[in-house]
């Protein structure tokens, strides 16, 4: 028994050190090189608390729309729907998102709609959309706000976030930041 007990205790202590101290320290160090340093970015917008790094719901035509959320933008319930591409309920939800998009963007063919505007992300709380998703919404927003589309296009271009360290992930646009900038541009 002594031959098994001491190695088991040593292994337990090594794992405790490795996973409780070293791994936690490593994750914390990696978080320090990210733009938000691993912290929630809380902004007060029109007297309402909003989080820059958690998806927010924008459905008004005068705003850039966020990516759909499988958890209705509830950070406490983060997660995907876990429905596969052959699930009829999932396909129905995606079709409803496509129909809604086309209703607000007449004449846009289905093939031109970016997938991130009709499908939820893995967390259900993605705060960013693709650059293509931002550009495809410019015409609608320009018409509603009665602004020259080139001004909004410039605003989008100014808010494009490059990949982390220039290599990790695609370019994206933070919807909350863009909509705040849009409001300050038009005083809405």
State the helicity in percent bands: 40-55%
- Supply the helix-strand structural class: mainly alpha
Shape annotation: elongated
Please compute the radius of gyration using only Cα atoms.
Answer: 22 Å
End-to-end separation in angstroms reads: 74 Å
Distinct helical segment count? 6
Main sheet?
3 strands, antiparallel
Elements, N to C (H/E): HEEHEHHHEEH
Tally of distinct domains: 2
Number of strands: 5
How is this structure best summarized?
With 188 residues, the protein is mainly alpha-helical. The chain has six helices and five strands; from the N terminus they run H-E-E-H-E-H-H-H-E-E-H.
Annotation keywords:
188 residues; 3-stranded antiparallel sheet; 5 strands; 44% helix
Structural write-up:
It contains six helices and five strands. The chain is mainly alpha-helical. The protein has two domains: 32 residues; 147 residues, no CATH class. A hairpin with a 2-residue loop joins strand 1 and strand 2.
How are the secondary structure elements laid out?
Layout: H1 2-31, E1 42-45, E2 48-51, H2 88-104, E3 128-130, H3 131-136, H4 138-145, H5 149-158, E4 160-161, E5 172-174, H6 175-186
Antiparallel strand pairs: 1-2, 3-5, 4-5
């Amino acid at each position: 028994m002594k031959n098994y007990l001491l190695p088991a205790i040593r292994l337990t202590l090594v794992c405790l050190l490795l996973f409780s101290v070293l791994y936690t320290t490593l994750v914390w160090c990696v978080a320090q090189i990210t733009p938000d340093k691993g912290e929630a970015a809380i902004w007060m917008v029109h007297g309402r608390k909003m989080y820059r790094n958690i998806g927010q719901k924008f459905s008004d035509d005068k705003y850039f729309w966020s990516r759909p959320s499988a958890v209705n933008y509830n950070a406490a319930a983060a997660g995907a729907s876990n429905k596969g591409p052959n699930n009829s309920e999932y396909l129905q939800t995606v079709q409803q998102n496509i129909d809604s998009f086309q209703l607000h963007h007449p004449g846009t063919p289905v093939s031109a709609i970016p997938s991130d505007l009709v499908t939820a992300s893995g967390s259900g709380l993605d705060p960013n959309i693709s650059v293509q998703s931002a550009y495809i919404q410019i015409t609608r927003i320009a018409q509603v706000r009665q602004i020259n589309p080139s001004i909004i296009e410039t605003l989008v271009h100014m808010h494009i976030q490059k990949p982390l360290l220039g290599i990790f992930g695609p370019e994206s646009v933070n919807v909350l930041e863009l909509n705040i900038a849009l409001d300050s541009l038009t005083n809405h």
